[in-house]
Amino acid sequence: MEVARVSDAEGPLILEVQDLVARYGAQTAVDGLSFSIRRGEIFGLLGPNGAGKTTTLSVIEGLRKPDGGRVTVDGADTERSALSVKAKLGVQLQASSFQSELTIEQLARLYSGLYGLNLQRRQLRERLADAGLAQEAAKPFKKLSGGQQQRFSLMVATIHDPPILLLDEPTSGLDPQSRRQLWDRIEGSRRRGGSILLTTHSMEEAQAVCDRVAIIDRGRLQALGAPNELVAMHREDPRVLAVSRGDVTLEDVFIGLTGSAIRD
Amino acid sequence: MTETVAPPRPPIGLTLRSLVRADTTVMLRSRQALILNFILPIVILVTTNRGKLGNTGFLIGMAITYGLLSSALIGYSITVARDREAGVFQRLRVTPTPTWAIMASRLGVQLVTSLVVGIVVLVVGSIMHDTYYTPGEYLLLLAVAVLGGAVFLSIGQALVGLVKSATAINAIGRVLFILLILVGILGSTGILGDDFKNIAAWTPVGALINLFSGVLSLSTWGATETGALLVCFGYIVVFAVIGIRWFRWEPQ
Description:
- The complex is a heterodimer of chains A (264) and B (252).
- With 264 residues, chain A is an alpha/beta fold.
- Chain A has a domain at 13-66 and 73-98 and 164-225: Rossmann fold (3-Layer(aba) Sandwich), CATH 3.40.50.
- Chain A is 36% helix and 24% strand.
- Chain A has helices at residues 53-61, 82-88, 104-114, 121-130, 146-157, 176-191, 203-209, 227-233, 238-243, 250-258, and strands at 13-24, 27-38, 42-46, 68-73, 76-77, 89-92, 164-168, 195-199, 212-217, 220-225.
- In chain A, the strands form two sheets. Chain A has a six-stranded mixed beta sheet, with helices on both faces. A four-stranded antiparallel beta sheet of chain A has the order 2-1-4-5, with helices on one face.
- In chain A, strand 9 (212-217) and strand 10 (220-225) form a beta hairpin.
- Chain B has 252 residues and is mainly α.
- Chain B has one domain (15-245).
- Helices cover 80% and strands 0% of the residues of chain B.
- Chain B has eleven helices and no strands.
- Chain B has helices spanning 12-29, 31-47, 50-53, 56-86, 88-93, 99-128, 135-162, 166-189, 194-200, 204-216, 223-245.
- In chain B, helix 4 runs antiparallel to helix 6.
- The N and C termini of chain B lie far apart (41 Å).
- The interface between A and B is large, with 36 and 36 residues.
- Chain A: Residues 15-243 form the ABC transporter domain.
- Chain A: One of its GO terms (molecular function) is ATP hydrolysis activity.
- Chain A: Its main location: membrane.
- Chain A: This is ABC transporter ATP-binding protein.
């Protein structure tokens, strides 16, 4: 699953996270995190459970305010221009939930309206057909299979053709066919000029599809770069060599930098 | 006009229209809401005996109040709590939709439901009790129905503001419902004595029943009815402030 890559130097910045701090009471979930994403780039945010990935996404999505630092999307501050920023984001949450009384066609109509698109029934049907959901239009979200739910969530996230797509563990729980199909759709979004920020626990997937990745742990940045660069950079790192079982992989780098202890 | 390219900021009219359409569909699809809001108040009208509990105005007022209480307090608070817990609000909040619009749409649909409950119960009640109301009386009764809907909505809002768990809200809402009905309706009938009747007159249900009776005999409108009107507005302000101040959008 190789995709065309964008080099670091190309394109203007679409997302900038600067010294981000987010706390839950006394616990610091994100501690001075900084990274940026360029137009057309697929960027992976990697970290063990509780590393601060979802919290970081929540701040970018405007679901919570940062306790420090700043996030800008296409130059606009997420706090000061919250609604304008949200109009530029396509978001797929870790567990998408939609009103259970509505069919997916009604949901598509609702969300297209919320993004300012007054789509007619024919156009909504076309969008659903593009997502392979034409036969399911009259079903509620919960009656869809896991793969169909993911496709619908992605369709809603991209209904307004956003310049940046935020995906929180998009392939979690999907079979290989659905995963491949999802990546084809994400790649399609990038071909249209979109950028993608995603979180994943699959290092194979990150290595295959991401132009660059940031490895974070306990809310702090541990490493940032193209997957192959990170592997080359840490090939001789004793922490990485200690966990490697042959050729050093991105997973070895990840475990070497974040530790082997299981996180809840 | 069909827009296929998203604007920098969606027009608020389209946002509200989309939300109201979805919330109305959700309301119409809820079988429980249909039964609680319309069928049970009509059952009350059928089963109540005019001579024993009070006059026609009292009985119709009681039936409408019951419908309002179940739709605005139970229906609204449980739906909001369930959607919050399921993450429906999180999904809506990542769109460029102001949070006030999400809530205004839900409250607006509930208030219209209150009005429809009022109309249906009023028409059925006046036919069953063979009573004629003037257009003015109809309008006043419907105005009281909307006011009652607002009172119970604000109590429902306070409930979802103070309690987070949908299960707890479901349980507390039902206990509150029974308490308000028992105190308001039984108290208002005088069955439990005069002291209790005086206290009941100041409860949300008691005040509303007094208002329903009051607008049907405007010539006898007095301090009790004026007090009931004021206390209803008081309840709306107090509970709405509590409900908005402590409301949290996030799931637990």
